[in-house]
Amino acid sequence: MKFLVHLLLSSLAVFVAAKLLPGVTIDGFGTAVAVAIVFGLINAVLKPILLILTLPINILTLGLFTFVIIGGLVQLTTPHRCIKAMTQSWDQEEACSLVLNPASCVVFATCFF
């Protein structure tokens, strides 16, 4: 049940981010659910591997290279290149975080701030 609620919240975050940000398009809520599932799988598998492989660069840039990794993962997730630029993928990730984190605090009583 907790997984389904988190999936619904993630899908809602992707959908809201697509509606708020110019240059980011999502066809419908079904596409947002698919993007949320794929992004969750990519974050669970690829993100830890990439963070470990780029640890020296992250140390040199004081963690700022993580934004490049996150932007690349969002670009990898989006269907049909719905996001036109890397900065828009950063914006979408931040917008999703701004929607998902407060919702997770309310529903699950766990905050990620």
Would you kindly provide a written description of the structure presented here, covering whatever features stand out?
The structure is a single chain. With 113 residues, the chain is an all-alpha fold. The protein has one domain (2-108). Helix content is 76%, strand content 0%. It is built from five helices and no strands. It is globular and about 40 Å long. The mean pLDDT is 75.
List keywords for this structure.
0% strand, 113 residues, mainly alpha, 5 helices
Task: Write a concise synopsis of the structure shown.
The protein is mostly helical.
Give the strand tally: 0
Radius of gyration: 14 Å
List SSEs in N-to-C order.
HHHHH
Q: Give the integer mean of the pLDDT values.
A: 75
Report the span from N to C terminus. 23 Å
Contiguous low-pLDDT stretches (5 residues minimum) are none
Number of domains: 1
Q: Work out the helicity level.
A: over 70%
Q: What's the oligomerization state?
A: single chain
Q: What is the strand and helix layout of this fold?
A:
Layout: H1 2-20, H2 29-53, H3 55-60, H4 65-77, H5 86-108
